[in-house]
Amino acid sequence: MEKNIKRFKCILAYDGTNFAGYQVQPGKRTVQLEVEQALNKIHKGESIRIAASGRTDAGVHARGQVIHFDSHLQIPGERWKKALNAMLPGDISILDVSEVDKDFHARFQSVRKEYRYRISLKSERDPFLRHYAYHYPFPLNLDAMKEAARYLMGTHDFTSFCSAKTEVVDKVRTVEEIIFTSTDDELVIQFIGNGFLYNMVRIMTGTLLEVGSGRKAPAEMERILAARDRVQAGKTAPGHGLYLWKVDYAITTNPGVTFS
């Protein structure tokens, strides 16, 4: 008798501090490895692979990473979340599980992503934030950063803001919004777009910080984009300040089997 295969979409959060990144790597602890090991245990040793909306680097966190997997187990929907969380370590949490159509793909069907980058502006280093926000205790011209960000919004070739290690050929992306939220102690930059290249958000952040500190003029962003040369942009901001916050899809899950 043919197995009744169902596809499930999961939203998960993780603290990236002790991971070598999302994707499986030989001999290293990764988010994908932990989730697949949990699924394999639930499936009594059967190998279950997952697909994600995208990879995150070592130290990078997620509040809304999306994955999908297929299963023939007849587990009631509301029990999937509890079953997975019971198997996973404390630095990963399944926030939501829903059954989706079999053609759903966590990566290829995403239409929008939101990343957030946290910057601690405290004059003294806060040991409790050392893994969760980039400490930058220098004066910043926020108005200049906002002006520079306007050049980055829209559809552009972001070769200058992409790691030279990327294997992606098409480097055209659309950045819909860049939002700055600041307090006396912290600056959070939200990047919302249809997709982001390898290290793109971290390089944009590093370049905006150079503008904010006066080392680059806001209008230089136009020249940097046109150059299509990674060397022209600023330094790559550290991974521990970055969060994959949310992933949006054009399609919806089956309303009859969505649960949290």
Looking at the structure, what is the overall shape? globular
**Helicity range:** 10-25%
| Percentage of residues in strands | 25-35%
Helix/sheet category: alpha+beta
Chain-averaged pLDDT:
94
The description of the largest β-sheet is: 11 strands, mixed
Question: What is the string of SSEs from the N terminus onward?
Answer: EHEEHEEEHEEEHHEE
Count of alpha/pi helices = 5
C-alpha Rg (nearest Å): 20 Å
Please report the total strand number as a whole number.
11
The low-confidence parts are 253-260
> How far apart lie the N and C ends?
31 Å
Index terms:
disordered C terminus; alpha+beta; 260 residues; 30% strand
Provide structural commentary.
The chain has helices at residues 31-42, 77-87, 142-152, 200-212, 220-227, and strands at residues 6-14, 51-52, 61-71, 92-100, 110-120, 134-135, 154-157, 172-182, 186-193, 242-249, 258-259. With 260 residues, it is an alpha+beta fold. Strands 1, 2, 3, 4, 5, 6, 7, 8, 9, 10 and 11 form an eleven-stranded mixed β-sheet that branches. A hairpin with a 3-residue loop joins strand 8 (172-182) and strand 9 (186-193). Helix 3 (142-152) packs antiparallel against helix 4. Residues 253-260 have low confidence and may be disordered.
